[in-house]
Design a protein that fits this description.
Blueprint: E1 4-9, H1 15-26, E2 32-36, H2 44-49, E3 57-60, E4 63-66, H3 68-78, H4 87-102, H5 105-110, H6 126-146, H7 158-173, H8 179-190, H9 192-202, H10 211-214
Parallel strand pairs: 1-2
Antiparallel strand pairs: 1-3, 3-4
Bound molecules: glutathione.
Domain GST C-terminal: 86-219
Domain GST N-terminal: 4-83
InterPro entries: Glutathione-S-Trfase_C-like (IPR010987), Glutathione-S-Trfase_C_sf (IPR036282), Glutathione_S-Trfase (IPR040079), Glutathione_S-Trfase_N (IPR004045), GST_Omega/HSP26 (IPR050983), Thioredoxin-like_sf (IPR036249)
Length: 219
C-alpha cells in the first residue's frame, strides 16, 4: 500500500521532476505517482497540489518535502547509499548537487529538456558553453576520482540524479563533449531508471506536448 505520493510534471519536459523521481525510485519509496501536465507557465493544478507551486513534491509517512534537493536528502536518510560513504567524496557529491540546484541557469534556459527532440548545434551561446565547460570539469574530477561509470563509482547516486536532466539535454542539443563526458552520458542513458523515464515520457498523451519545447529554436 502506498505510503504517500510524489507529484511531478510532464516527464518529457520536467527536469526537476526527474531528479525527485530518481531519488524516490533509488530509495524504493512506495508512493503513488501523480503526474500533472506542465503548461509552460504556472498552473492552478500544480499550485493547488504543492506547497510552493512547483514540482516535484513528495509526501511520505507524514513528511512533506518540496525542492528537488530536499527530496534527495530525505530519500538519502532512507537509503544512505545515495551519497558516497567516504566523507570527502560525500562532500564533493553534495557540492556538485548543490551547484546544479543553484546554477547553470544559461544552460537550463537555452537548452531545455525535451526528451524526444534533437536540436544539434543550436543555442550554443558563450554563456551556455561556459556552463557546459564547468559541468564537464566537475564530472571529470568526480569520474577520475571514482573510476566511474557513475560520478561517484559503480552506483547511480544522488549526484547523478541531479545531473540526469543534463544528460537528456546533451542528447537533445548535442553540444561537443569530451570523451569522458560522452562515456558518462552513455552510462547514464543506459541505466534502467533513465530508460524507464524516457519510455514513460514517450508514452505521454500528445496533447501534453508544448510547442515551446517541441519547435526547433529560431525556426
Ligand atoms: N527549485 C525547484 C524548481 C522546481 C521547478 O521549477 N519546477 C517546475 C517544473 S520543472 C514547475 O513546477 N513549474 C511550475 C509549473 O509549470 O506550473 C526544485 O528544485 O524542485
Amino acid at each position: 500500500m502506498a505510503e504517500g505520493r510524489l507529484v511531478i510534471g510532464t516527464k518529457m519536459y520536467s527536469s526537476w521532476s526527474l531528479r525527485g523521481w530518481l531519488a524516490v525510485q533509488l530509495a524504493r519509496l512506495e508512493v503513488e505517482e501523480v503526474v500533472i501536465p506542465l503548461a509552460g507557465g504556472s498552473t492552478r493544478a500544480i499550485q493547488d497540489a504543492t506547497p510552493a507551486g512547483l514540482v516535484p513534491y513528495l509526501e511520505h509517512r507524514g513528511a512533506r518535502v518540496w525542492e528537488s534537493l530536499s527530496i534527495l536528502e530525505y530519500c538519502a536518510e532512507i537509503e544512505p547509499r545515495l551519497w558516497p560513504s567516504d566523507p570527502v567524496q560525500r562532500a564533493a557529491a553534495r557540492s556538485m548537487a548543490a551547484e546544479m540546484h543553484a546554477g547553470f541557469r544559461a544552460l537550463r534556459t537555452a537548452m531545455p529538456m525535451s526528451i524526444l527532440n534533437r536540436f544539434p548545434g543550436r543555442n550554443r551561446t558563450p554563456e551556455v558553453l561556459a556552463d557546459i565547460a564547468r559541468i564537464e570539469a566537475i564530472w571529470r574530477e568526480a569520474l577520475l576520482g571514482s573510476g566511474g561509470p557513475f560520478l561517484f563509482g559503480s552506483r547511480f547516486g544522488a549526484a547523478d540524479a541531479m545531473f540526469a536532466p543534463v544528460v537528456f539535454r546533451f542528447l537533445t542539443w548535442e553540444p561537443e563533449l569530451q570523451a569522458m563526458s560522452r562515456d558518462y552520458v552513455a552510462a547514464m542513458r543506459a541505466h534502467p531508471l533513465m530508460q524507464r523515464w524516457h519510455d514513460e515520457a514517450a508514452a505521454e498523451p500528445a496533447e501534453w506536448r508544448l510547442a515551446k519545447y517541441e519547435q526547433v529554436p529560431g525556426a
